[in-house]
Amino acid sequence: MTSARIPLRDTLLDLFRTERQFLLFIGLAFIVVGAATPYPDVARWVGFMLAAYSTIANDSIQTLGTFIASNEHRPWWVLWIFIGGVFLATIAYGWAVADPPGDVSYGRLTSDAFNTMPTSFNFFQVAAPLFLIVLTRLRMPVSTTFLILSCFATEVKGISDVLMKSVAGYGVAFVLGAIVFAATARLFVRFRDTKAHPMWVPAQWISTAVLWSTWIMQDMANLAVYLPRTLSFTQFLIFSAVIFLGTGFLLYLRGDKIQRVVTEKSSVVDIRAATLVDFVYAFILFGFVKISTIPMSTTWVFIGLLAGRELALILMRASGRPIREGARLVGRDLLFVTIGLIVSIGIAYLANPVFHDMVLDALGG
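Above: the chain's sequence. Below: its structure in token form.
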């Protein structure tokens, strides 16, 4: 009798399929964090590696979600070569031309609140990405920017600026998403049951490359905050290799559980719809990149865009979904990012004395 061969992807997914196994992994990771925290040179790289995977895993729904959903028929390694290549090109260019030299954050860590490299760490600063992994497990899209950067801000203004810019990003994305997809809804209804022209394939890959590159410019600060503000060549190679390999693992798993935040929305597996989502999202992010170097939550922007799109398609009767169900999806996503914000505030309160004092002042204590 021959035994059925179990694919490696299924084996990896099974590894953390039960809550007991997942909690065991998280518990062991917390032990590693606790052991590393007293040693800054070790803690910064442990924190970075945890942040690298947790940030990309949670934020993958924004930049790669529609790409993964509409390319399920392609081998994972083809997607990895493409996505990994865009990452390496973007981060290498940023590192080479940065001012100051060696900065991989595209200037997002040059403000007074974030321009100082941590010389020591407390437990919650290093463990913050583990909380993000738990929230990702629960399929909650979280503001990784707020969760991680708030643990390191040296000024109250830096935290409030990130929050205000993120909320503004949600509003802008909601409105623009509603306008664009209301205007194009009828076209998608007309051609929904027709085969997409072959030119949509390169169009989507180009839109994904632009979006992924723009996201890297915005969100590398969440990883680099643990590290020296200027990386040597060796440090840059380690930084790039960790993220490159982590991205490949994520694509091998096809986005894992949080991918459902994208696939449950209307028509995102249609390459035409996916391409338009990516172009609009990239346009919004690029606009905020140019407005200021203040970090922002790209998650809030993406959830706002999906919310505006979903409601526009429902109101234009282009999704085949009742308005109550659409409102439920939009409300649930907003609830989840709000829960993530509350958790982030709690972690920042424990990890950052600046944030701790700000909360006490706000409460009159």
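The chain has one domain: 8-359.
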